[in-house]
Amino acid sequence: MQTLKVAIAGFGGVGRATAELLLQRRDRYRQVYGVDVRLVAVCGSRAGLADANGLQAGQLAALQPGLTGPAFIAASGASVLIEAGPSDFRSGGPGLAYLREALAAGQDCIVISKGALVHSGPQLRELARASGAMLKLSGAAAAALPTLDLLQHSLAGCQVLAVEGILNATTNYLLDAMRTQGLGFDAALREAQAGGFAEADTRNDTEGWDTACKLLLLANFGLGADLTMEDVDVEGIHAVTAQRIDSWAKQGLVPRLVGRLERVNGTLRASVGIKTYPLSDPFAQVNGKNKAIRLSSDAMGETIAIGCGVEPLATAAAALKDLEHILQARAARPALSKDHPA
Length: 342
Ligand SMILES: NC(=O)C1=CN([C@@H]2O[C@H](COP(=O)(O)OP(=O)(O)OC[C@H]3O[C@@H](n4cnc5c(N)ncnc54)[C@H](O)[C@@H]3O)[C@@H](O)[C@H]2O)C=CC1
Ligand SMILES: N[C@@H](CC=O)C(=O)O
Known about the structure:
The chain is 40% helix and 24% strand. The protein has helices spanning 13-24, 26-33, 71-76, 95-104, 115-131, 148-154, 169-180, 185-194, 203-206, 209-222, 242-250, 313-339; strands at 2-9, 35-43, 47-50, 64-65, 80-83, 108-111, 135-136, 160-166, 232-234, 253-264, 267-278, 291-297, 301-307. Strand 12 (291-297) and strand 13 (301-307) form a beta hairpin. Helix 4 (95-104) packs parallel to helix 5, helix 5 packs parallel to helix 10 (209-222) and helix 7 crosses helix 8. The two termini are 26 Å apart. The structure holds 1,4-dihydronicotinamide adenine dinucleotide (NAI) and the ligand N[C@@H](CC=O)C(=O)O. 1,4-dihydronicotinamide adenine dinucleotide (NAI) is lined by residues 9-15, 43-45, 68, 84-87, 94, 112-114, 139, 143, 196-197, 199-200, 311-312, 315. Its EC number is 1.1.1.3. InterPro entries: Asp/hSer_DH_NAD-bd (IPR005106), HDH_cat (IPR001342), HDH_short (IPR022697), NAD(P)-bd_dom_sf (IPR036291). Pathway: Amino-acid biosynthesis; L-threonine biosynthesis; L-threonine from L-aspartate: step 3/5; Amino-acid biosynthesis; L-methionine biosynthesis via de novo pathway; L-homoserine from L-aspartate: step 3/3. This is Homoserine dehydrogenase.
């Protein structure tokens, strides 16, 4: 049986949930793909663990100091890296160094943090192209809500004319809690933090940056654009007051923080801001920490997906969906070269 060695960098809520789910699914990988998927290394900012024979769930509680940093990936012999560190789109975050190292070495990468992809997307894509590595990012691009899958697979061949998305769970949760429970902004934010889906720096959620990051990933990795944060008009929800919420409610309107991409005269325009919807619009029904995406295309009309799951499991599952796609692609490779010898 073939072996596939996986390493995880960034071992907080999502990294740990991904490790646990991967270990639970090992039998499935053996049965469906005939592959022995081993978790061979994990690391946080100051400590890690590695074992080429595969780590077991019971070992993950205690990491060893010092075993961290991009070099640990090569040392572990992993051929797939799952990156789940903090998101920092201004610097690329710690993920950038891990991804550069892994992609340059030809290791397939599953990215859950957004920072490096937004900061250095074209460079990372080029590293992947040059080394033949696969670069997957479902976890970064709204995770449990299918977004890139729709653009890359479900609407393949269509021209996507517009994308509108409730892409950030925290802001949707806040707006909803203020509107339906009369909670104050700070109290609602504390609930989102307790739920494990707010960013470490919650301004990234409330000021609209997380939505803008996800929108850029959809534009650049889903629609082949090359936009930067400078190209996005970004408005958050931090200035929303109880009075404004009341006034919208009296008009029968539901506020959502949405990211929008629109083709205008052949150019893709990107913006993030509050939009209000009448109750008859499906976006008005996307409650709590749910997310949604509406795509308009030339030939398939309008497609809407709504989704969420319990975090951090849902994001772990989105990342491991990418792993399944990598297993499928790896399985298809020998068949391809047999049918079409070079
Ligand atoms: N929590 C959620 O619902 C979702 C989170 N994400 C993204 O997943 C990522 C992780 O999120 P959480 O696990 O919730 O955050 P977290 O803060 O619990 O975990 C991040 C981990 O990265 C570690 N880290 C920091 N610097 C590092 C370095 N140089 N090397 C290795 N590890 C380092 C930290 O010690 C921490 O344990 C973030 O980028 C977030 O934006 C994406 C989708 C949903
Ligand atoms: N903070 C984000 C979670 C990860 O992307 C959100 O609220 O959606």
